[in-house]
Amino acid sequence: MNLFSSFFSSIKSPTVKELIKNNIPEHVAIIMDGNGRWALKRKLPRSVGHSEGAETLKEIISVSIELGIKFLTVYSFSTENWQRPQDEIDFLFNIFVEKLREELDSMQKNGIKVKLIGKREGVPHYVLEAFEDAEKKTSENSKLILNIAFNYGGRQEIIEAIKKIHKEVLKKNIDIEKINELNFGNFLYTESCPDPDFLIRTGGEYRISNFLLWQIAYTEFYFVKTLWPDFNRSDFLKAIYYYQKRERRFGRV
Ligand code: IPE
Ligand code: IPE
Ligand code: MG
Q: Less Cβ around it within 10 Å: N or C end of the chain?
């Protein structure tokens, strides 16, 4: 352990009560990475890592609500993840369907609104049905907007946006000259959602992997080695603590 990492791990995890005295990010995005390595370390199949990862997400959602975070965007399946073995893809899809069904009541009770962000085309019918059912049944909720990035790719999202704009221009509904940095976002999957204030990536990789490319222009980044299934309440609170120490300048002095 070097000096830097021992310094990091020596910080005591703050409490929710302490954190809410300061600025809480309105929108947190998470690249939930490291499920496979978590399982590998234990000589278990990768699928066990994904199941554990789903438990972590449940905990992080509940802490997000305690903190008063308004938007939580989680990367759960990228357009690049289609390159994984079919059995792993099938397992992931089944787990999404199972969890969406299992958690529906609790999401209702806790005011969580689910939104699928990603390309719906190409998603197997049974998976899309579970997502759309959860979207419909939670559509009146507003405490926490849970954007699930599924079959999501940032570059593809931007291209789709351009195509939507082109269609509107052809129909003469919009003037291309009126498209600007503010309203371009309305054509993305995230639509009216504000840009993420804070992006966490677990699993130790220092990359974005095609996540929210347009939206993260001024997001604060936090990369942590902890594998997603090990990432817990206190790790999340610590991350928020570090966010609160950042000075966001947006180009100003
Ligand atoms: C993240 O964990 C989950 C998905 C990408 C679906 P990984 O499965 O990428 O885990 P590692 O990176 O191989 O450890
Ligand atoms: C990013 O993780 C996608 C998700 C967490 C869903 P990956 O594991 O797919 O990313 P790379 O391959 O390491 O860039
Ligand atoms: Mg990974």
A: C
